[in-house]
Amino acid sequence: MNIMINSVKFKADSKLEKFVTDKVSKLERTFDNITSCDVILKVDKPEADNNKIAEIQLVLPGQTLFNSKQADSFEEAVLQAVDATKNQLSKYKEKFNKKNGDLKTDLYEISKEPIVDDDETGIEEV
Fold this sequence. Notes:
The protein is α+β, with helices and mostly antiparallel strands and 126 residues long.
């Protein structure tokens, strides 16, 4: 999964970027086929409370999931957005598996399956 972190009108320090990357990368445990993830961090009004916003946009096969959460700190907003995205992702995975006949999404599981020769030529398909 490719994770892009954008901070609007401020420079995010490396600790915050590492925190965001660690938390967002855990979403791959829920669903393997995540193409990319964009995280946008921005400050709504500097003088107000509860002004930090974290937006997460996940690109999946045939679907894009989006969540935006606002909190007192970026860490709290990111945690809330990741939890909400994880719930969305679980629902998407159920629909995806139901639609595709419980299609295997784990590449490790697919690689363990033997190659079956279906035609009479005796040539294995890869």
